[in-house]
Design brief:
24% of the residues lie in helices and 24% in strands. By secondary structure, it is α+β, with helices and mostly antiparallel strands. The chain is globular.
Length: 270
């Protein structure tokens, strides 16, 4: 793993020693202050380049195009809200997705399944343990955004999201967010509506370089990826961990996000 990751700079594989403890403490501070933290240059450039070459032939014929009209909740049946409430403003999202079962030996899957990463994330978020998702499709997704495509405003379902940027676009494709727009105590629908009326007033932006690992608390923070511009595609891997083992999407959720409900079964020759 040392050939793939900069573990000299980020010794998350050895949290018992002082450098590892200092990394955890620093990331906790950033998470508390900003709702996120990033490890720039976490994956080495040579590993990123090989990964992109491996994925290139898959995008045309293997990726699922997820095109969706949605509100910020990805839910058309929000209880207690009139259909014309400002919090239910509609958006368009378009991306192209490769699932974990399509790329089982890839760089993102190898990093995701490496136990020290889950242990590090659990330590930063002060959780007893984190487990890889059991779902063979959803555990790791690699998403591509081409010119004009975007991931629009939404809240995440899980407490936090872990992403690895594999390729940054020429322009656009910026990550924007507004922390603490809702909370466990309340949905703040009116506040969400005011935010969506003018996101530029309070949204913050974050630019990431290829190889950056980003951890973001997205359940209570509205966020989006702005439309990509130029010939260079934005490509990002999304890792899903949970506090309990065995988490899977339903067949309906799989069809919604990936266009299929069953995993691909590889033959003995791979």
């Amino acid at each position: 793993m040392e050939r793939l990751l900069d573990l000299d700079r980020y010794p998350l594989h050895d949290l018992s020693r002082a450098p590892g403890r200092a990394l955890v403490a620093h990331c906790r501070e950033l998470l508390e202050a900003d709702g996120m933290f990033s490890l720039a240059g976490f994956v080495r450039p040579t590993a990123i380049a090989r990964c992109l070459d491996e994925f290139e032939p898959l995008w045309a014929g293997e990726a699922f195009t997820h095109q969706r009209d949605h509100n910020i909740y990805f839910d058309d049946n929000v209880a207690g809200l009139a259909t014309d409430h400002a919090a239910l403003k509609r958006f368009q999202t378009v991306n192209h997705t490769l699932c974990a079962d399509q790329i089982p030996a890839s760089l993102p899957c190898r990093i995701y399944e490496w136990p020290p990463l889950a242990a590090f994330l659990a330590a930063v978020m002060e959780m007893p343990c984190l487990y890889p998702m059991a779902d063979p499709l959803a555990r790791v997704n690699v998403m591509a955004y081409r010119a004009g495509e975007a991931l629009n405003w939404h809240f995440d379902r899980s407490e936090f999201t872990t992403t690895l940027l594999l390729q940054a676009p020429e322009t656009g494709g910026a990550f924007e967010y507004c922390s603490d727009l809702r909370s466990p105590e309340g949905e703040n629908y009116d506040g969400v509506g005011r935010f969506l009326a003018d996101p530029s007033a309070t949204a913050r932006g974050l630019s990431l370089a290829a190889g950056s690992l980003n951890i973001f608390k997205g359940k209570y923070a509205a966020h989006r990826v702005t439309p990509v511009a130029g010939a260079k595609t934005r490509i990002i891997a999304v890792f899903s961990y949970y506090e309990r083992p065995g988490r899977c999407f339903s067949a309906t959720e799989r069809r919604e996000f990936y266009g299929r409900s069953q995993a691909i079964v590889l033959d003995s020759n791979g």
